[in-house]
Amino acid sequence: MITSFRKISLLMAAAMLLFYSCKNAEKESTQTRETTQEGLPPVSDQMMESAVIYEANIRQYSAKGDFASFTQDIPQLRELGVKIIWLMPIHPISMVKRKATPDLSIEDITDPQEKEKYLGSYYAIADYRGINPEFGNEQDFRTLVETAHQNGMYVILDWVANHTGWDHHWLEEHPEYYTTNAAGEIIDPIDPGTGESWGWTDVADLNYDNKDLWEAMKEEMEYWVTEFNIDGFRADVAGEVPTAFWEEAVAALEEHKPLFMLAESEKKSLFHKAFDMGYNWEGHHLMNQLAQGEITVQAWDDYMKKIDTTYQKDDFLMNFVTNHDENSWAGTIRERMGDASETFVAMSYTIPGMPLIYSGMEYDLDHRLKFFEKDSIPKTRGEMWPLLVELGRLKNSSKALHGGKEAASYNRLKSTQDDKILAFEREKGGERLIFVANMSDQWTPFSLELEGSFDDYMAGQPVKLTPEASLELDAWEYKILINN
User: Fold this and answer.
1) Would you kindly state where each structural domain of the chain is located, as residue ranges?
2) Beta bridge partners of residue 235, listed in sequence order
3) In whole angstroms, what is the distance from residue 357 CA to residue 323 CA?
4) What contacts 387, CB < 8 A, 6 or more positions away?
5) Do residues 126 and 165 lie in contact, with contact meaning Cβ atoms separated by under 8 Å?
6) CB neighbours (10 Å) of residue 222?
7) Could you give the angle at the alpha carbon of 259 between the alpha carbons of 270 and 361, nearest 5°?
8) What is the pLDDT of residue 68?
């Protein structure tokens, strides 16, 4: 006889849910008191173990697209377990060669009214010390940072150190800061692998062979730490900037306060001294391939073994099912992952590392946000909000989900259907968590090499397992089991 994970008495399930509800209400009340009484402690390794990070796209977050609209919603991000807010670039955007579409610049548009709708790429910085007037002013930004801190969250800025917009004042004042071609002309960034342009024609490439640039860039970063009390940076294309610069800059910046540093890179050397966390790009692409049936679970197992042998023990990565690049250019979560979407969201919280929420994900964002024009995310809570609440609560509270520099262990569990069933165990400090998922579009019966009594976290139901038990999971169904 096949035993379904779902066949548990309704009475016992209700009792368990009531227990969890009371327990979580007490925990949230305690957290509120701690934040109010003690304020926000400095960035620490301990904080990183249980953090959820939120990428805020200010332009598209609200109809107004300003700091104030986002700031008023910061308190509710607590419900999602968010501890770090990453703001996409907040600086003025260059007008010269401003992107209108991936292939056209604003100079290619002749209709004056048509030109007005093209706001350009956040990553074409006109002034590192300025604030995009579309978002508000300095006081609006200070209020955002202060509100985040009051709600127990850290704020990091997206920092574009690799290039500037074409009307940045350095182009006139310090042309020696830029990369030039054989004719002495300043150029846009080049792909070192091919020698061809990346296509980022709206920006001018900075040349880090010039050590004066190092000092100037450090001063620009320092301004935001000392004047606005931000808590770190997300470094755009971090691997294209010399690691030595990042190490020198971070050492100087942390003389003021501890910082959280996120690199948009998987480059190992960046984590030795400069960055706390990198991007799990390879893992993300594997998730997409799994969801689309292009690979089996074996490819994921191979990747986890590779990670274990490639990185140092205290290196860790950001896990994501979407971000600003993926949503706009590769498609929505549903487009890429279909019926497997919820499973991979849960998986991003339970594997080692730190999970990311991108603006709109919490509201079941179902369209590709425009990148160079004004757009807006939905603000109606659907299926994703309650899921993220539960996953965030577990991530914040369970040692078994510690994912930072002292991460909980990750051990693959064997099943009779290892090409379809992904099962792994996380453990730390006596706390144990099991993630098991059917990574296929077919109902799958199996047995699992696991024995013990657990709680089904999402359903609030007790589960008892033995290696001999026959189990089943529907297509893309998953379970999170915790020791009771």
Assistant:
1) 40-407
2) 159, 263
3) 8
4) 342, 345, 346
5) yes
6) 15
7) 85
8) 98
DSSP H/E element including 454: strand 452-456
pLDDT along the chain (484 residues), means of 10: 41 39 42 47 98 98 98 98 98 97 94 94 98 98 98 98 98 98 96 92 98 98 98 98 98 98 96 96 98 97 93 94 97 98 98 98 98 97 98 98 97 97 97 98 97 95 94 98 88
pTM: predicted TM-score of the whole model, two decimal places: 0.92
CA distance 318 to 308: 15
Distance CA 18, CA 15 (A): 5
The token duo for 337 is: 């992952």
What is the amino acid identity at position 238?
A
* Tens of pLDDT, residues 154-180: 999 999 999 999 999 999 999 999 999
Three-class HEC string of 130-190: CCCCCCCCHHHHHHHHHHHHHCCCEEEEEECCCEEECCCCHHHHCHHHECECCCCCECCCE
Give the C-alpha separation, 154 to 159, whole Å: 16
How long, in residues, is the chain? 484
User: Which residues are within 8 A (CB) of 19 and not within 5 positions of it... i.e. 6 or more apart?
Assistant: 460
- The reported pLDDT for the residue numbered 32 is 37
φ, ψ for residue 261 (rounded to 5)? Answer: -120, 125
Question: Does domain 40-407 bear CATH number 3.90.228.20?
Answer: no
Give the pLDDT confidence of 267-299 residue by residue, as tens digits.
999 999 999 999 999 999 999 999 999 999 999
Q: What is the pLDDT of residue 310?
A: 87
Cβ(412)–Cβ(437) below 8 Å: no
Dist. CA 479–CA 5, nearest whole Å: 8
Output phi, psi for 203, to 5 deg.
-135, 155
- CA dist 266 and 63 (Å) reads 35
Which tokens hold the place of 268? Answer: 């190992």
User: How many other CB atoms are there within 10 angstroms of residue 82's CB atom?
Assistant: 25
Task: Output the CA torsion sign for 18, 19, 20, 26.
Answer: positive
How many other C-beta atoms lie within 10 A of the C-beta of residue 268?
A: 13
The per-residue DSSP string of 255-280 comes to TTS--EEEESS--TTHHHHT-SEEE-
Q: What is the pLDDT of residues 429-455, one digit of tens each?
A: 999 999 999 999 999 999 999 999 999
Across the chain, how many H-helices and E-strands are there?
17, 18
